[in-house]
Specification:
Layout lengths: L4 E4 L21 E4 L7 H8 L4 E4 L8 H4 L7 E4 L9 H6 L3 E3 L6 H15 L2 H9 L16 E5 L3 H12 L3 E5 L5 H6 L3 E2 L3 H7 L2 E4 L13 H6 L5 E4 L8 H9 L5 E4 L19 E3 L8 H20 L8
Parallel strand pairs: 1-2, 1-3, 3-4, 4-5, 6-7, 6-9, 7-8, 9-10, 10-11, 11-12
Protein name: Phosphoglycerate dehydrogenase
Organism: Pseudonocardia dioxanivorans (strain ATCC 55486 / DSM 44775 / JCM 13855 / CB1190)
EC number: 1.1.1.95
Amino acid sequence: MTVPRCAVLDDYQGVALTSADWSVLDGKVDVEVFREHIADPDELVAGLAGREIVVLMRERTPFPREILERLPDLRLLVTTGMRNASVDMAAAAERGVVVCGTGGLSTSTAELTWALITGLARGIVVENTALRGNGPWQQTVGADLAGATLGVLGLGRIGSLVAKVGLAFGMDVLAWSTNLTADAAAAAGVRLAESKAQLCATADFLTIHLVLSDRTRGLVDADDLALMKPTAYLVNTSRGPIVDQDALVAALRAGRIAGAGLDVYDVEPLPADHPYRSLPTVLATPHLGYVTRGGYEIFWREVVEDIAAHVAGSPVRVIT
């Protein structure tokens, strides 16, 4: 009997098969790993023809309706994490494609958030670049974290972890989201901002920790950026489209804010000619928030478990 074919997409670092024990699938599933991102829809469909199982690493490759409709053999779509905004769930359900996910870590994104905040505050990239190139000795004057105001937009699992570190630094921590209450903010040891506008106007560092949805897309817009202090920094390790990209580029070019720390973008990988690659006040990383050994071990172990369960006809971690 022919075994089902499985494609693992976007394994950029080539670690999918070494981050978990795939031997349980030997002889049961034919697994092929794709390390290079396939952006062209026709090329993607051709590469996935005849595959019953496809594994997605987060939202690196979108699966909208027009892709799903061209993959008649697809039966199982596994995504790392239990949420993937780039998959058309309704279209998958209509076509009988089961979408399942895995666990993950919240701590890794919170840690990267602080790498960006501290990197911006102390001019790490500028100073390190100068030192490596025998440039000027000391060019920047750092921003103090102690006594500064940290604005947290979204006080969920990750936002709460980020807020806790801010408190440890001696920062005044304010938080806001549409449904956040004063009691919930107080339980996390922080204060509730009266509004999004107050949060933006008050924060010395504004960090975003919201789920991308129709409600949050473009939530931070030109008006919000105009409210920010010229000495303030914006940090986004959540999802790129939560911030109006054009408005942020304009604000950075005009020097209306001091800078931005970004790990997420409207289009990923970030196009080679994108302004974020060259703006001097941007500290950018290639969506590394979830990319740690511990996180990957959870991702790939549970990917294997999901595939094994599917092949055995057992329940999988279905995303609803």
